[in-house]
Amino acid sequence: GQQLNQSPQSMFIQEGEDVSMNCTSSSIFNTWLWYKQDPGEGPVLLIALYKAGELTSNGRLTAQFGITRKDSFLNISASIPSDVGIYFCAGRGPLGGTASKLTFGTGTRLQVTL
Amino acid sequence: EADIYQTPRYLVIGTGKKITLECSQTMGHDKMYWYQQDPGMELHLIHYSYGVNSTEKGDLSSESTVSRIRTEHFPLTLESARPSHTSQYLCASSEYSGSGANVLTFGAGSRLTVL
Predict the structure, then answer these.
(1) Fewest CB atoms less than 10 Å from the CB: which of A4, A47, A81, B1?
(2) Integer Cα distance of B62 and A21 in angstroms
(3) Tens of pLDDT along A14-73?
């Protein structure tokens, strides 16, 4: 099946720093999604990407759909303490049929220090 | 604000008990899902549904069962809970077609602990 490798697994940064994380797939995806999960809560959608090369921003967050369709990255600029959480990428390949099942990455745990 | 609701949020029960985790959504979505997630780990799909009277097994084998009698309701049941079932269970829904078909909206989760 499809696998998503997310890196880094965890990162400690200082408030105000920029953050970058990425997700790579062993096969082609036609949709990339980025979610954030706070402790004890469900994941919340941050950004959705539907076309290769697409670059989309949501406030301080920017995500790109890689040209090869096998990767995506998420950048967070000027991090703040509330950015703490686990960030998951999720992708859907072209062979999903009507199932629309997503494959989730392993997550990047972000911790922000003052 | 949440449009998909899960109850209970937290449940601690003894081995052998039957439990049902409730999930309801008010968005009129046809597709619903259950994911299992250990703390801080990745999400594993255990059940999904295309619509009323449709249920399918997910990628991760689970002893739980689901039903979809109404569009808005997708409960998950464990007939006899065991400590190995201890985990967080996340319910999600999405639209059936178009770009929304790929975007899942999640509930807050039900954290189950079996003693």
Answers:
(1) B1
(2) 31
(3) 999 999 999 999 888 889 999 999 988 999 999 999 999 999 999 999 999 999 999 999
